[in-house]
């Protein structure tokens, strides 16, 4: 198969000229990608077709041994495909020099893969150095990357990997992968070996990073909750890397394509769905409020005038302070200090619905105050609005998922038709360059 | 003449012999190291090639040194050549074996990472695999050196350089006044040299093993 393989990838080439904008993602297209390991009759990856958009974070999730890593490693050709094609940014990279290809693709793995005999700075500077950045520029970049992943450059710069905690190693691993500003980042269970709390932190960091950088990220995990948290889209893979469903987390949770996917989603899909929506996305009701500086008489009047049973007392800075019911003030003989019940739990507009639900469930009156950035009152969410919102969400998800599935089936039908006509025939790349170790 | 008097009267000759002994071992070690690491690098990726290299060098070691030199003399003549060839061949085994073990022992995840971030095969070898395999290789070199110290004495049999001459002279004139002194001074000289080399390797290790993997 003689493919006029282009020598370079269509990166925006940010290599020269400092201060150039960071390279954002490139699309990745897998076409009939297949891997047959020598000595096994069944292919480990069987004709995968997938299109990953620029700037998208796609998670591969699936049971152990289903071919996630194999598929991922074919993208940077750590494993040579035995058939099919890979396009990155429109360019066919199936036959380009793998070493050059890999320098444009960040790669982060479990157990960080840091070289123990090099300092943190040397590790991070490796790829920039290889692609020919000057010493000064590399050094500057190293500091920048450490900063980016939340490590103090002055402190961590000269340390060796064994002097770092697991979570810190993982951060450095990500910094190294991103150092030469690749448009594509491949991550193979990068947070698989750290404790749950650190993992949670690292996931948050990755979300923040991706918010800034807009790389195209392919992320492998077998933790479905991780997939939901991180993915713009999730590809649920079954054996031989067959795509069981490739859709947004919302769609997969509310409308799993089949039993395999629902099995993988596990119990509590509706609860997991709550993690994906923020308080700001649901209806926040306004409550009557008074502040501690208002004259008592006015407060009396407001309590009486309000249609609700209680009003919210705010402190001098507009932060929720106490719930006041009718009669509270009477009982406390007009002393604000003694009247009412303290507001002990609030959520921010960025909290997930799950957090909000938790707060509502533990509140004895079934509502929670929503606060703004500085803790100031912005509204209230109660059980009823929460339930209505969730129902609406689920309904919308279901509709969307059904639509997507319909499209997918149509595309699949088209594909089989093409295959039968021999148009999209799998190209058997002669593969097997001496790169992979048996 | 007691031993000390003997040393006093012969110290110049002894020092010259010791110097030649050390120099021969050192030079042969340099060659054996280069060759041994090269063999290791070429063979470690394949099961059978690696095992073949280890077995072949191990077989060499079973040949008695006297026989080896005896076999070499008709081919390369007397003097330095048979000494150098024999020493290099004997020095190979520990280095080849440790190089293969060391290179194979590099965490596959690191090899994967090195390749994955775009290192060429050569760069990976030079910047990741060899530095990580260096501590066991250095141990091999150390063992090799100790071994060669003793074997080098046999070189005198082929009119080679070194402290072996002292020992052989002593053995040849057993019963004479200085026979014991000669054997003793040759042997002690070798032991002292071996200790000095060993100390030097500790320093070399300090200087060449990267701080991040020093134990
Ligand atoms: N080098 C190899 N030679 C032969 N078979 C292999 C090789 N590497 C992987 N396989 C097989 O290919 C299949 C897919 O492996 P892969 O590593 O891609 O799975 P995975 O989905 O990443 O699993 P995990 O979640 O456990 O990492 C497995 O059945 C595995 O046994
Ligand atoms: Mg895997």
List its traits.
A: 438 residues; alpha/beta; six-stranded mixed beta sheet; four-stranded antiparallel beta sheet; B: MetI-like fold; binds adenosine-5'-triphosphate
Q: For this structure, what is the CATH class of chain B? A: Mainly Alpha
| Total E-strand runs of chain B | 0
- Helix count of chain B equals 8
Q: What is the CA–CA distance across the termini of chain A?
A: 25 Å
Q: Per DSSP, what share of the residues of chain B sits in E-state strands of 2 or more residues? A: under 5%
Secondary-structure-based class of chain B equals mainly alpha
Strand order of the largest sheet of chain A: 6-7-8-3-9-10
Separation of termini of chain B? 50 Å
Return the domain count of chain B.
1
Residues in helices of chain A, as a percent range: 25-40%
* Dominant shape of chain A: globular
Mean pLDDT of chain A: 82
Main β sheet profile of chain A: 6 strands, mixed
Average residue pLDDT of chain B = 89
Low-pLDDT segments of chain B = none
Structure description:
The complex is a heterodimer of chains A (438) and B (215). Mean pLDDT of chain A is 82; it is low at 1-20 and 423-438. Helix content of chain A is 37%, strand content 19%. In chain A, the strands form four sheets. Chain A has a six-stranded mixed beta sheet, sandwiched between helices. A four-stranded antiparallel beta sheet of chain A has the order 2-1-4-5, covered by helices on one side. The two termini of chain A are 25 Å apart. Chain A is globular, with a radius of gyration of 27 Å. Chain A has helices at residues 68-75, 98-103, 120-130, 135-148, 153-156, 166-178, 196-213, 224-230, 249-254, 259-265, 269-274, 296-305, 328-331, 353-362, 383-421; strands spanning 28-35, 45-52, 57-61, 83-88, 91-92, 105-109, 184-188, 216-221, 233-237, 243-247, 289-291, 310-314, 320-325, 341-342, 346-348, 367-371, 377-382. In chain A, helix 3 (120-130) packs across helix 4, helix 3 (120-130) packs parallel to helix 6 and helix 4 crosses helix 6 (166-178). Chain A is of the alpha/beta class and 438 residues long. The longest helix of chain A is centred in the last third of the chain and has 39 residues, at 383-421. Chain A has 15 helices and 17 strands. Chain B is mainly alpha-helical and 215 residues long. Chain B has a single domain (3-210), classed as MetI-like (MetI-like fold, Orthogonal Bundle). Chain B contains eight helices and no strands. Chain B has helices spanning 3-43, 47-62, 65-76, 80-104, 108-116, 121-154, 164-172, 179-208. The longest helix of chain B has 41 residues, at 3-43. Chain B is elongated and about 70 Å long. The termini of chain B are far apart. At the A-B interface, helix 2, strand 6 and helix 3 of A face helix 5 and helix 6 of B. Adenosine-5'-triphosphate binds next to helix 1 of chain A.
């Amino acid at each position: 198969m003689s493919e006029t393989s282009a020598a370079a990838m269509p990166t925006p080439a940010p290599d020269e000229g400092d201060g150039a904008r960071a390279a954002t993602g490139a699309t990745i297209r897998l076409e009939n990608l297949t891997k047959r390991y020598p000595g096994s009759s069944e292919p480990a990856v069987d004709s995968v077709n997938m299109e990953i958009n620029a700037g998208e974070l796609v998670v591969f999730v699936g049971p152990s041994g289903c071919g996630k890593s194999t598929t991922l490693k074919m993208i940077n050709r750590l494993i040579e495909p035995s058939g099919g094609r890979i396009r990155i940014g429109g360019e066919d990279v199936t036959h380009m020099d793998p070493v050059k290809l890999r320098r444009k693709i960040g790669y982060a793995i479990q157990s960080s893969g840091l070289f123990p005999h090099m300092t943190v700075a040397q590790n991070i500077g490796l790829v920039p150095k290889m692609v020919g950045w000057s010493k000064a520029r590399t050094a500057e970049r190293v500091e920048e990357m450490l900063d980016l992943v939340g490590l103090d450059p002055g402190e961590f710069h000269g340390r060796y990997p064994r002097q770092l905690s697991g979570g810190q190693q993982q951060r450095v691993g990500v910094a190294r992968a991103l150092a030469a500003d690749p448009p594509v980042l491949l991550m193979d269970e990068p947070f698989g070996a750290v404790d749950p709390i650190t993992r949670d932190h690292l996931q948050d960091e990755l979300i923040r990073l991706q918010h800034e950088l807009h790389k195209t990220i392919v992320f492998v995990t077998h933790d479905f909750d991780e997939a939901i948290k991180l993915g713009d889209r999730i590809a649920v893979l079954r054996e031989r890397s067959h795509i069981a469903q490739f859709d947004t987390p919302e769609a997969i949770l509310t409308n799993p394509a089949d039993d395999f996917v629902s099995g993988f989603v596990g119990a509590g899909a509706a609860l997991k769905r709550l993690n994906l929506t923020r308080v700001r996305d649901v209806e926040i009701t306004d409550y009557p409020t008074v502040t501690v500086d208002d004259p008592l008489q006015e407060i009396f009047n407001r309590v009486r005038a309000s249609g609700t049973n209680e009003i919210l007392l705010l402190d001098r800075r507009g932060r929720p302070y106490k719930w006041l019911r009718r009669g509270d003030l009477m009982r406390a003989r007009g002393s604000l200090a003694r009247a009412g019940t303290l507001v002990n739990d609030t959520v921010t507009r960025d909290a997930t619905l799950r957090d909000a639900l938790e707060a509502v469930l533990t509140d004895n009156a079934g509502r929670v105050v929503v606060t703004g950035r500085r803790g100031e009152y912005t509204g209230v969410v109660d059980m009823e609005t929460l339930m209505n919102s969730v129902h609406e969400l689920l309904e919308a998800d279901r509709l969307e998922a059904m639509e997507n599935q319909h499209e997918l089936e149509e595309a699949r039908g088209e594909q089989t038709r093409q295959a039968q006509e021999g148009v999209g025939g799998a190209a058997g790349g002669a593969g097997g360059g001496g790169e992979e170790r048996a | 003449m007691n031993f000390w008097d003997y040393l006093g009267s012969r110290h110049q000759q002894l020092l010259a012999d010791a110097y030649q002994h050390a120099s021969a071992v050192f030079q042969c070690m340099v060659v054996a190291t280069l060759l041994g690491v090269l063999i290791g690098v070429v063979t470690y990726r394949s099961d059978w090639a690696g095992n073949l290299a280890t077995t072949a060098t191990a077989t060499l070691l079973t040949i008695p040194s006297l026989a080896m030199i005896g076999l070499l003399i008709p081919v390369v003549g007397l003097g330095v050549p048979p000494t150098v060839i024999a020493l290099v061949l004997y020095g190979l085994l520990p280095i080849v074996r440790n190089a293969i073990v060391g290179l194979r022992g590099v965490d596959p995840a690191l090899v994967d990472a090195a390749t994955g971030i775009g290192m060429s095969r050569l760069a990976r070898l030079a910047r990741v695999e060899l530095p990580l395999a260096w501590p066991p290789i250095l141990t091999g070199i150390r063992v090799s050196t100790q071994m060669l110290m003793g074997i080098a004495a046999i070189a005198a049999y082929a009119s080679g350089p070194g402290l072996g001459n002292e020992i052989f002279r002593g053995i040849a004139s057993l019963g004479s006044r200085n026979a014991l002194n000669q054997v003793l001074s040759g042997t002690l000289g070798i032991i002292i040299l071996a200790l000095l080399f060993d100390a030097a390797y500790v320093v070399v290790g300090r200087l060449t093993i990267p701080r991040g993997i020093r134990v």
